[in-house]
Each structure stands twice: as C-alpha cells, then as structure tokens.
C-alpha cells in the first residue's frame, strides 16, 4: 500500500496540517529543520538507526546513525556559535558530497544561521558572485577546495572566516581555521528558537541573463518536503533511499537531506564520478529501494544498454522518480522494461522548494506527462497574453501556482523587483511577505505546458526555449522526445535558428548511441522516422551532430547557450555550465 493511498481523496481532504502531524510538530513549538532531521528522530527511539551510508572514490565507506547526526551537527552548531556567528548569517557549504556537507548543513540550521550550499565544482568566479551577493560570513570547505576561496577572499568584505572541515590541516594559511567535528561532538545543544518563517536554506539559480538569483527558503519548507517525500517518493521506515543529486542543487537538499531525514529514513550517498556500472553496483550493494534521479542520468544509463543492467541484482528497487528536465516517454518505457519499474516524473523548481506536479504511486502513468498537481497545490495554465487561467484542455500556456504553499521561496536576495515580477497581478509596492500568501495572485514558473482532459500536465518547454516558427510556437520537448525514440540517438536539443521567412526554423543537436556514426543515410533515416511523429512545423531544418550537449551542473541541457551561439548573441550567465 502506498503512503498516499487515493490521490483523489487526498486532494479532497487536504490540509497542510497533515504534514505537521506526520512530523509530530505542534503550533507554537520550535520549528527547526536541523533538529527535526536529527534530535527528533532520536527522540522517537531511532538514534541507532542508520541515517547515512556514504561511499566515496575507491569504494571507501562510512556510516552514520541518527544519533551521530545529532551530536555531530550539534558540534558544528556549537562551533559556529563560538565563532560569533549570529542567527540569520549565511554560512556557505563548499565541498564534495562528503558526510561533512550533510551533517554541517543540519548544524548550521540548528544554530539559526542560513545554509548556502554551492557545487564544489564551481570555479572561483562562480563562487565569488554567490558569496558576494549573499554577504556570506563564513565558508565551510575542504583542503581540496580552499584554494578557490583564497583567490577571491580579498574581494569579499563580508567573508570573515574560512573553515576547513576535512583533509590535511597542514599548510593552512594564517587566519584559516581547521575544524574536525569528530573531535568535538556535543551531546546537548540549545537549538535556536526558529519558527516557520525563519530563513533556512539559500540556493542560487542561474537566470537566462544577468547574475544568478538567490532563492531564500524558510524552515516551514520541511512541511512540503516531508509530505512530498512521503506521498510521492513513498518513503517508509525500512527504505534505503538514494537521491543522486548534489546538494549544490535544490534537489540535493530538499530531497537529499531534508525530506528523507525528517521522516527518519536511511539514505545513501555516492560521491564518485558517474558510470552506469558504478551506479548499478551501488544499488546492488546497498540494496537501494527508492531511487530519485534525473533525465540526464537516465539517458546515460539508457545509452549503456540493457545488457549491463542484467549483470547486477537490482531486485531491491521498488520505486523510481525523476526531476530536473522533461522526462521523455521513451525513458519511462525503457525503465519499465529493464528495471521492471517506470521512473515517475516530478516537476518543481528551486523557487517552489518542493514537488508541485508529479506522478504518484498507484496512479495511472501516461509516459511523457509530468502528472498532476500535488494535493494542496493549486496549479493552473495561464493564457500567454491575458494571463487568465485557460479552461480548454490542450491549450498551451504558462505553468502557474497559487501562492502560499509552505516550501515556497520567500525572496530573491536583494532583488525584490525580480521577485515581484514572478507574480501575475502584483501591485508595484507589494512586499515579498504579502505576495507569498496572496491567493488572488499566481506565481508564474517560467515554463509552458498544457493539461489534458484527465487533468494530466504535459510539458512544452521553458519560456525562453520555445521556438517561434512563422508565428507558430513549438516546444523543444516534443521534438527532442521524437528524436530520442530513434535507436541511434542518445540525446537531443532543439532550438530556433534565424530564418528570413519564418523568423525561426527548428535546428537540432544530437548525440549518437555507441555504434552509430553520422552519415547522409542516417540523417535521412532520422528525418523519415520523426516525420511520422511531428507536425510539419516542428520538423528540423538542420541536424548537427555533437559529441556532447552543453549542460548545467544539475544536468539540464542549456539550449539558450546553443541558441546564442547560433544567433551570434551574448550567452549570458554561464556559471553553472558543466565544464568537465
Ligand atoms: C528541481 C529543479 C527548475 C526548472 C523548471 C523546468 C525544469 C524541472 C522538470 C522540468 C520538465 C520536469 N524542470 N523538473 N521540466 N519536467 N519534471 O529542477 O529546480 O534547478 O530550479 O530548475 O527545471 O524548466 O523550471 P531548478
């Protein structure tokens, strides 16, 4: 039996109080994510239960119980207090996916500071923009990554302390602090008296142009993250859960820390480079039961084929989900065939903090659809021009949500106008706090979709990725989905390229599966194949073969980068471009 039971019933009888009940939280109590994920689980008698099974390069393993999380996160919290860090200060976490990252995240929150996790793969410039913007006061990093911080520290007036939490303490520079938490576990720590609106986690998202924006979340987010972890990921007490995302990306905190641990679920982390074989071995060795990943990884697994899957025992798996990009129908069908389980698509954003439109366990899946709104979420498709909600199934418009769900972002750091611009109908002088709860407004996501007669949502593309050919709008997703169904194609990206007559025509970039080479015959074959699946308007005028598609660190294809190159335009902020 799935945790959600009947989707329809849950929708009818929904209240966020259910989340508070699931977490055992009562009005007036301290609400603190750090404590919720450690102290409270221990208080339930699960202190000796495994919380984290970590594996690094070369198969190195470490295991932590919930009690370990509790005393070690207390250690970080106490250390920050002694350092003079105040509640509300930003503490950046800049390290690989090592245990220290996950545990210090809880510690930062426990003492009331804001946790700002950043990808360890960021170069010094990407790091600088985000630390500068947030006035970050302290950075936790490792011996391996401290050099990048040193390079920029002179340009960061707010940055007071550089703390190295792992690696060799030798050769640190003057003023840098070494802190190995194992040597300073703290049994009792007075958790900061945070409430639902106290700032918690800060994630930077990169916009299409200009500087990245800092989306600030609050402790109430745990209600959304816990309930979606229960009803969508279907996490249960005896699960071994694996979220493959890095906490530099919101998926890695909302569902790689907060969701599972607030429910007291064991999770595992693999901190080594991607290979399909390594991932399958990890699932096999740890008997992973629930697996949350992303289309970019799923497409890589598909490229490596079914034979590889057969070499591993993946029978522990019982539930799979995906986020980050549209999940092609092809991927859903393939996973059902080779793993015996479909990947269930979930749609959400850094700004939404938790899942918004998803497929639920037990619900009929329509491959290629994002599913239905989470109970308690009011979703709509707004007309592109009037911004009125559309009523006709199949009409493409803007995906929007009524404000007020608990894990919604509370502001963009120092960018109130941009925050306001995300809400349709907001007054020019409206304050973020008002906007967030005004249920007469719509929060507009920046993505387009339609719903069908059964209420399933179908993704079309991001606003800025939609192709305008002769006045007709074509979404890249349908073109790419048709392409990846072809046996030779591993990945595809569709963009509009300039055209004198039609304004734009469709151009696609593709990568090929092993064993295929570009040729005229192949191109003809691909064209004939997709012609049956696409409207004439969506047919590509040009195919370009690529070795690799440009992607963000969270695995999203950067179509705007391909497009800017094609149009000879400025490419905008590229700090999240994956460069290895
Ligand atoms: C969690 C996360 C958000 C953007 C979002 C959309 C795309 C995410 C998707 C999806 C289609 C899905 N996106 N999930 N598109 N289907 N299931 O990804 O947050 O990094 O902020 O990105 O990602 O374009 O607007 P974030």
How would you describe this structure to a colleague?
- With 580 residues, the chain is α/β, with parallel strands linked by helices.
- It folds into two domains: 7-449, ANL, N-terminal domain (Rossmann fold, 3-Layer(aba) Sandwich), CATH 3.40.50; 465-567, 2-Layer Sandwich (GMP Synthetase, Chain A, domain 3), CATH 3.30.300.30.
- Helices cover 30% and strands 22% of the residues.
- The chain contains 19 helices and 27 strands.
- Strands 2-1-11-10-12-13-14-15-16 form a nine-stranded mixed sheet, with helices on both faces. A five-stranded parallel sheet has the order 4-3-5-6-7, with helices on both faces. Strands 17, 18, 20, 21 and 22 form a five-stranded antiparallel sheet that branches.
- A hairpin with a 5-residue loop joins strand 1 and strand 2.
- Helix 2 packs across helix 9 (221-231) and helix 9 crosses helix 10.
- The longest helix has 17 residues, at 66-82.
- The two termini are 43 Å apart.
- The structure holds ligand 6R9.
Keywords:
580 residues, GMP Synthetase, Chain A, domain 3, binds ligand 6R9, Rossmann fold, alpha/beta, 2 domains, 27 strands, 22% strand, 5-stranded parallel β-sheet, 9-stranded mixed β-sheet
* Low-pLDDT windows of residues: none
CATH hierarchy, class of the largest domain? Alpha Beta
The helical percent reads 25-40%
Q: Please, what is the CATH homologous superfamily of the largest domain?
A: ANL, N-terminal domain
Counted beta strands: 27
Q: What composes the largest sheet?
A: 9 strands, mixed
Name the assembly state: single chain
Shape: globular
Q: Taking strands numbered 1, 2, ... along the chain, how are they ordered across the largest sheet?
A: 2-1-11-10-12-13-14-15-16
Number of domains: 2
Mean pLDDT: 95
Whole-angstrom Rg:
23 Å
């Amino acid at each position: 039996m799935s945790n959600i039971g009947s989707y329809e019933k849950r929708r009818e009888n929904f209240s966020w109080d259910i989340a508070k009940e699931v977490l055992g939280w009562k009005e007036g109590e301290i609400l603190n994510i750090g404590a919720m994920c450690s102290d409270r689980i221990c208080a339930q008698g699960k202190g000796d239960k495994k919380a984290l099974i970590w594996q690094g390069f070369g198969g190195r393993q470490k295991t932590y119980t919930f009690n370990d999380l509790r005393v070690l996160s207390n250690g970080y919290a106490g250390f920050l207090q002694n350092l003079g860090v105040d509640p509300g200060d930003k503490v950046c976490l800049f390290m690989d996916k090592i245990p220290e990252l996950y545990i210090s995240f809880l510690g930062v929150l426990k003492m009331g500071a804001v946790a700002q996790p950043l990808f360890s793969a960021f170069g010094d410039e990407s790091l600088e923009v985000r630390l500068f913007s947030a006035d970050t006061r302290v950075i936790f990093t490792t011996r391996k990554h401290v050099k990048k911080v040193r390079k920029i520290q002179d340009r960061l007036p707010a940055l007071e302390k550089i703390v190295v939490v792992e690696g060799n303490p030798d050769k640190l520079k003057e003023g840098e602090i070494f802190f190995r938490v194992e040597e300073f576990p703290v049994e009792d720590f007075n958790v900061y008296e945070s409430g639902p609106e106290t700032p918690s986690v800060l994630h930077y998202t990169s916009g299409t142009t200009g500087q990245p924006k800092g989306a600030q979340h609050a402790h109430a987010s745990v209600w959304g993250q816990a309930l979606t972890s229960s009803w969508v990921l279907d996490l249960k007490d005896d699960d071994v859960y694996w979220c493959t995302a890095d906490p530099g990306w919101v998926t890695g905190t909302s569902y790689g820390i907060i969701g599972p641990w607030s429910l007291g679920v064991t999770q595992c982390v693999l901190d080594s480079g991607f290979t399909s074989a390594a991932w399958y071995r990890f699932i096999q060795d740890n008997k992973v039961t629930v697996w949350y990943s992303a289309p970019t990884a799923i497409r890589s697994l598909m490229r490596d084929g079914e034979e590889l899957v057969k070499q591993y025992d993946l029978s522990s798996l019982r539930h799979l989900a995906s986020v980050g990009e549209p999940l092609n129908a092809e991927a859903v069908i393939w996973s059902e065939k080779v793993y015996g389980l479909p990947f269930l698509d979930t749609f959400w954003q850094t700004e939404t903090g938790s899942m918004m439109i998803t497929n639920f366990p037990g619900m009929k899946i329509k491959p290629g659809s994002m599913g239905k709104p989470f109970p308690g979420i009011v979703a709509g498709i707004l007309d592109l021009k009037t911004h009125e909600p559309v009523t006709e199934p199949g009409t493409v418009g803007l995906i929007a949500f009524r404000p007020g769900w608990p894990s919604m972002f509370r502001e963009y750091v120092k960018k109130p106008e941009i925050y306001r611009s995300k809400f349709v109908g907001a007054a020019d002088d409206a304050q973020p706090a008002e906007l967030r709860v005004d249920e007469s407004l719509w929060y507009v996501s920046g993505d387009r979709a339609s719903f069908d007669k059964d209420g399933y949502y179908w993704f079309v593309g991001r606003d800025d990725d939609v192709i305008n050919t002769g006045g007709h709008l074509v979404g890249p997703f349908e073109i790419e989905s048709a392409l990846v169904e072809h046996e030779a194609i591993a990945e595809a990206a569709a963009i509009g390229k300039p055209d004198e007559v039609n304004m734009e025509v469709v151009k696609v970039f593709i990568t090929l599966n092993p064993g295929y080479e570009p040729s005229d015959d192949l191109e003809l074959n691909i064209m004939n194949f997709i012609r049956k699946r696409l409207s004439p308007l969506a047919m590509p005028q040009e195919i370009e073969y690529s070795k690799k598609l440009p992607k963000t660190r969270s695995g999203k294809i950067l179509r705007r980068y391909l497009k800017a190159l094609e149009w000879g335009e400025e490419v905008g902020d590229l700090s999240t471009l994956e460069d290895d």
